[in-house]
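Study both lines:
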Amino acid sequence: MHTSSLLLILAAIVSGAVVPFQAGANAVLGRTLGHPLWGTAISLCVSFACILPVMLLARVEMQALSNLAQAPRWIWIGGIVGVVYITGALVLAPKLGAAGFITAAIAGQMLASVIIDHWGLVGLPQKPVSLPRLAGLGLIILGLIVMQLQASGVKPATGS
C-alpha cells in the first residue's frame, strides 16, 4: 500500500473518530433545546458558520448557480441525509450509547456502500459485490450483534 493511500486511510479514520463526539454533543444540544430537530437545526447552522470563514480564507470562488440546473436531481440528497443522520444520532446515541450507535451506523453505511458500489450509484465507480466484500460486511454486522448483546446484558454461551 502506498504512503498516499495510508494517509488517506488515516484521514478517514480521524474523520470517523470525531463522529461519536458529534453524536453525544448533539444529543445534549437537542435535550437542552427541548427537541431533537432543534438540535439538528442548530448543529447545521454551526456547521455553516464554521465552513463559511474557511471558504473565505481559501478564496473559494462562487460557481454560477445556473450549474445546478444541469446537475442530476439526486445531488440534493446529501443535505437530506445530513438531517436524517444528525437527528438519528441525537435520538439514538443516548439510547444505544456511542459504541452501539456508531457500530449500527457503520453497519448501515457499509450495507448501503456495497449496494452503491455494486451498481455505481450517485456518480461513484462500479465495483461489483464479491465474496470478500460480503464477508467483511458480515463481520461488521456480527460485531454489531456482539456489541449490542453485551450492552443489553446478554452473556455469550460458554463452552463448559
In short: The two ends are 43 Å apart (CA to CA). The helical segments are 3-17, 19-33, 36-57, 67-70, 77-119, 131-151. The first helix runs from residue 3 to 17.
